[in-house]
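Limitations
The structure tokens in this dataset are predictions for the assembled complex, not deposited experimental models. Users should treat interface geometry with appropriate caution, especially where small molecules or nucleic acid strands are included. An illustrative entry is reproduced here so readers can see what is and is not provided.
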Amino acid sequence: MSQGTLLYAQSGGVTAVINATASAVIGEARARRVRVLAARNGILGALREELIDTSKEPLAAIRALAHTPGGAFGSCRYKLGSLDADRAKYERLLEVLAAHDVRWFLYNGGNDSADTANKVSRLAAEFDYPLTCIGVPKTVDNDLVVTDCCPGFGSAAKYTAVSVREAALDVAAMADTSTKVFVYEAMGRHAGWLAAAAGLAGEGPDDAPHLILFPERAYDEADFLARVRKVVDRVGYCVVVASEGIRTADGTFVADAGGGRDSFGHTQLGGVASYLAGRVQERLGLKVHWTMPDYLQRSARHIASKTDLDHAMAVGRAAVRYALEGRNATMPAIVRTSDAPYRWKIEPAPLHRIANREKTMPRAFIRRDGYGIPAAARAYLTPLIRGEAYPPYGRDGLPRYVALRNTPVARKLPAWKV
Amino acid sequence: MSQGTLLYAQSGGVTAVINATASAVIGEARARRVRVLAARNGILGALREELIDTSKEPLAAIRALAHTPGGAFGSCRYKLGSLDADRAKYERLLEVLAAHDVRWFLYNGGNDSADTANKVSRLAAEFDYPLTCIGVPKTVDNDLVVTDCCPGFGSAAKYTAVSVREAALDVAAMADTSTKVFVYEAMGRHAGWLAAAAGLAGEGPDDAPHLILFPERAYDEADFLARVRKVVDRVGYCVVVASEGIRTADGTFVADAGGGRDSFGHTQLGGVASYLAGRVQERLGLKVHWTMPDYLQRSARHIASKTDLDHAMAVGRAAVRYALEGRNATMPAIVRTSDAPYRWKIEPAPLHRIANREKTMPRAFIRRDGYGIPAAARAYLTPLIRGEAYPPYGRDGLPRYVALRNTPVARKLPAWKV
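Predicted assembly:
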């Protein structure tokens, strides 16, 4: 057994493959005889000293994590502020780490988490506490800089492209007498990566999706509606994919415009798809349907991308290696060396380069008219959704997802409220 | 080559496996050297004399139909009225059938279609036109009587159960700091079969879905909200599955209550999930997310049930046999002979027994408290979602769904506007 303990925590919205990263982290650490604790509900568990002893889980359960969506130890939305503003919290965190002899801290999340991991590493250095902090990438939004893509994105992207292709066949079959316009709402508050992935569903110019709305382009209702009308006239129906984060030229989120009161004066929850569908119905008089997959798109392990799964496992293994090698304040980044054939490798990237930055869709990945994806985006996206990685199914027809025991570690410190 | 032609038409909302039925119909007919025409856009194509020559499709394309969702020849929402009211249309239909030497008419749809096929057969008898009419069952709503279940339902049910299980893992992981209540909207305007299928996602009493709202039970807001609160207090989060067709005790559709005007005075499209989510947020002050899968649930061939696919193919083959045997005005019905092991067979049922009737969830399939499914419903539902039947995927990571040539047959009659 190596000296010291590795602490693993999940952060932010979970994905179809974040547990695959956890599986790889624990598997790799076990192979190297390193003890792994996990924080319950992400950084909050670390602050509250709610830690889980992963050595209590059988190997089969750790392996099954690789095909189980969600976040096996719990995750959280909780951002630590600056070292000055949140100093007490950072110090508490170090205290908990020290109490459990944690020498390696792996934080699996997005750019917020990279920032937190980076700050923890700075504070540890300040206190001369020997700690190696590693950020492990994860986000369906695909908005981390430096890394070519983010584990979690490829599977959500595959879900999106497959779902749009399937729904489009449905709409096409019925358009003569039923729905003419179908609107699909994709996650992505600031970056249009998932909406872009929907573009993979179509090949020819008349294939769905006919119009993609990106948060990187201002939403212009008149132009949008005129295009919907033209597509319906030409193709017979129109499939629209809209990022949840589209905004008008003055910066107003379209989703916020959709909220309001229903006829009983109750709060009406909006959403981009329902809003756009309403406008199409009202202004164009066309029968419209819409879908908001919401969490389904980021938890759909049943249609995970094999490439994405491979990435998720690879960053997990690399994170353990980097930790034990003492590559402090780094993140294993996915580096693409070739589009076709698709080739990639993992390389360490400094956390400070990733922290708090956001990668939106580059101009070259949005078609000149603003409503689709060009060949460059296809070349980038296609390998990320390639390959199927089905979970095992039971006799009940359902995927066999594992639930861990999550055995708590005895507390060593006084309780701390957060 | 047998004398005469078989006409196949799809009707109403399409499913993940209606094309599998088409594949079986055409395959069986080809094996028996019977010519198959298909009506473009269902009965409308028959009325308009827009017919498709399926002999122009290569065998590989017909086989690929078995894994392609949507409706390969187009479907429609178009109900013929009584023989008296719509006599001209029925006569036109017979005229088109006669012009193309159609001796067997297979109508693939729900209870409306069973009614239409039945009426066509009566009119043909009246005119001494030798025609055998067969209804072929299809509907994700699972609301046909006589048949134990309906092709299309099992796959939508599997999609529902898998999606709810996956999304629940997501919600569970984040509930500490994020979403506490998640609402999933299932199709089913009058019958709660798909919502019931979501119940398969959970096994123990605290597993999601925690509350299912059936159209067969009056929606009582106070009772519902109190239960949501109790589940959140006990489990930490609450997953709700609601049928789109739930109604309050006075018969008002909850989905209609949800519609209204947004803050700009625009039409607000409602939906049960968004409405319930709004009530939970407003009345309980809990963070809520919701999803409306809409067409995704009925077109998700990527997660089709093997049992459902087997049913869809079997009714297609049986329909051709019944047609050629002259079993007029019948439908191949699925007869269950055993739950465990699951055993079934196909038997002919008279169309008049199926036409225009609707099978809602029996009392024994709804838990006594009205918010879940008991063992009897599980025993019925489980075999229907059992088995995976994945479509083939291309190197682009997407299912290889087939697009037919749909070669039109030359018209023989004057145009007829409908």
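Some entries come with short summary sentences. For this one: Chain B has two domains: 5-139+301-357, 153-299.
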